[in-house]
Amino acid sequence: MELRGIIKGSGYLCGCQSCNYSKALNAYEFERHAGCKTKHPNNHIYFENGKTIYQIVQELRSTPESMLFDAIQTVTGSPINQKAFRTWKESFQAATRELQRIYGKEELNL
Hints:
Blueprint: E1 5-8, E2 11-14, E3 24-25, H1 27-33, H2 53-61, H3 68-75, H4 82-103
Antiparallel strand pairs: 1-2, 2-3
């Protein structure tokens, strides 16, 4: 069964009749709302371009950090909420700088 949703934070806003995009679910819960249950829900949750969450993560794993933000916008093939994306990007960059400060630039491998 196909169930539409929107990625929000670390979950999915569920588009089922009872949730109507008002409730954020984790991947397992989202899959259950679609009438399925597997051990690997991210293999069965798709972007509009037909790629699964898992496929996207695998593609991004080998992306150099300097190209990561551009790659995310390209590889998903879906519209991105630019305001939320910029907020996440700034948070990620701040966390990276803090880790580099604590552990030293050479020792940090993300």
